[in-house]
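So, can you check this record?

>
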Amino acid sequence: MNKEDYGHHISQQFNAELEEVRTRFLAMGGLVEKQVGDAIHALLDADSALAVAVMDNDQKINLMETRIDEELVRILARRQPAASDLRMIIAVSKSITDLERIGDEAAKIARYAKALCEEGESPRGYVETRHIGNQVRLMIHETLDAFARMDADQAFKVMREDSNIDVEYKTATRALMTYMMEDPRYITRVLNVLWVLRCLERIGDHARNISEQLIYMVKGADVRHTSYEVIEKKLSGSA
């Protein structure tokens, strides 16, 4: 299946409705991606105003989720879609939940950034935050790009990247825990950074979830809780 498969219905109105859902989903994803980037910048640049803006914008993401949900319900009621169209609706419905939760994690990062602006910067953890933050932002971008192009192979690459995020998160957490035990004076500030890293790790999980839904939409294969080896076989058609 590819993007063009969604444009061949007898009803042009149905085509327009499906395309509108895709457009709104990608617009929501674009705002979520920006929120994550801005939250990270607010932390690294000690920009309290930017942190507040990220927190305020979270309501926009919530509203976008609600509107897309409403449109999906209308399509289900009016069109009773089957096969690939139904998979698309299911995948988008689940994916907007993950996008909304990524937005929530971005707002949390912004709150920790604001706290660190007020309390004073943490002596450790910003290098790890910058590195893991760049990785998860790239995951979001590549997931949305894969969705726009109906690219299951790229979605699978995003899934695999989540494993690297998990490893780096655990390594950074151990290092910061050790630092806090050695110098308790900065426990509160370092804890805030640890929570930021936890938010970034969860963002990676949500990007993986969206990629799983894209593979389901394109290939019709449920790859949740499935090993990479089995997924590769499904994508190549050998399973």
Observations:
- Residues 3-236 form a domain with the Methane Monooxygenase Hydroxylase; Chain G, domain 1 fold (CATH 1.20.58.220).
- The chain has one domain: 3-236.
- The radius of gyration is 20 Å.
- The first helix runs from residue 12 to 44.
